[in-house]
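Retro notes (design track)

What went well: tokenization of the new backbones is finally stable.
What didn't: we kept losing track of which sequence belonged to which structure.
Fix going forward: every design gets posted as structure first, then sequence, in one message. First example under the new rule, 275 residues:
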């Protein structure tokens, strides 16, 4: 199977994420801190969801739990029907590598590699892990084609040979998103992806992400504490003190890449909640 062909996708509109009863307590804190206090949620295939909330409300912990990076003390996470925390560590790592793309506030690119090499990394790692078994390797030419395609999609043409220190913050974050998407994951998870970017670059990045959702139905969950960033999503989950306390559906999706969505309805709801 070519890498550009992901496993058979969950039908658009079916639940891709099913999380139930998530509880997480950090006991090293004194007193122990309940960071997730019974969270259940669904995200549909092809949906664009944002998670908002004050600093310390548990947004990152929830995102890492949904992505299989942070095991909960209780509760389950199913992605595309796979119960993440009932599989072995190595199965979970493999599932994460093949089906989930992560993007962080600090782009986490490898400085000694070019932009294109950073983007290609997940495919190279997949090839290396398939080595002992032979077969299922992605041909060099297919890797190059896929890297080129995903970099073009993120407006990175011409920057393939640049190192991370030779491109801007916005370009580095787009390289990080290209790397997260290169293996055609079922799910893209982003933790404060615009946290280090200026206003214009943040909105350019968000309109690129919403274009991916519109054109590829790329299921995406973005954590942010900014209403103007969350307003790009179709649905916003609002967290407070380890719980989801409200959910706001936004009817608009920006019709064009230039349109900046109006955060006013979201801000009004946050004010009403006293957040
Ligand atoms: N590894 C850890 N060990 C102990 N406590 C932790 C750990 N990670 C997070 N916490 C605590 O859990 C709480 C929630 O953290 P989390 O990072 O999920 O919040 P957040 O909503 O993402 O905040 P921010 O907006 O500042 O990023 C915080 O009080 C934090 O100090
Ligand atoms: Mg956080």
């Amino acid at each position: 199977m070519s890498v550009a062909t992901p496993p058979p996708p969950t039908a658009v509109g079916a639940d891709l994420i099913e999380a139930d009863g998530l509880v997480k307590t950090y006991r090293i804190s004194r007193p122990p801190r309940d960071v997730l206090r019974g969270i259940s949620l669904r995200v549909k295939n092809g949906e664009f969801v944002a998670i908002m909330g004050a600093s310390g409300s548990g947004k990152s912990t929830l995102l890492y739990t949904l992505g299989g990076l942070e095991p909960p003390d209780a509760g389950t996470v199913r992605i595309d029907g796979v119960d993440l925390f009932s599989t072995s560590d190595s199965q979970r790592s493999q599932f994460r590598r093949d089906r989930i793309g992560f993007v962080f506030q600090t782009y986490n690119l490898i400085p000694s590699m070019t932009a294109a090499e950073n983007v290609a990394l997940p495919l190279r790692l997949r090839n290396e892990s398939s080595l002992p078994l032979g077969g299922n390797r992605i041909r060099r030419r297919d890797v190059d084609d896929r890297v080129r395609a995903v970099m073009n999609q993120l407006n990175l043409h011409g920057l393939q040979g640049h190192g991370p220190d030779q491109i801007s913050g916005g370009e580095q974050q787009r390289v990080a998103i290209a790397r997260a998407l290169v293996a055609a994951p079922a799910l893209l998870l982003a933790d404060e992806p615009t946290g280090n970017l200026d206003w214009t670059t943040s909105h350019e990045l968000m309109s690129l992400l919403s274009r991916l959702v519109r054109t590829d139905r790329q299921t995406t969950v973005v954590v942010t504490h900014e209403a103007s960033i969350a307003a790009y999503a179709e649905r916003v989950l609002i967290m407070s003190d380890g719980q989801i306390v409200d959910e706001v559906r936004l009817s608009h999706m920006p019709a064009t890449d230039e349109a900046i969505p109006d955060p006013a309805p979201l801000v009004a709801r946050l004010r009403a909640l006293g957040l």
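Added context from the reviewer: The first helix runs from residue 59 to 66.
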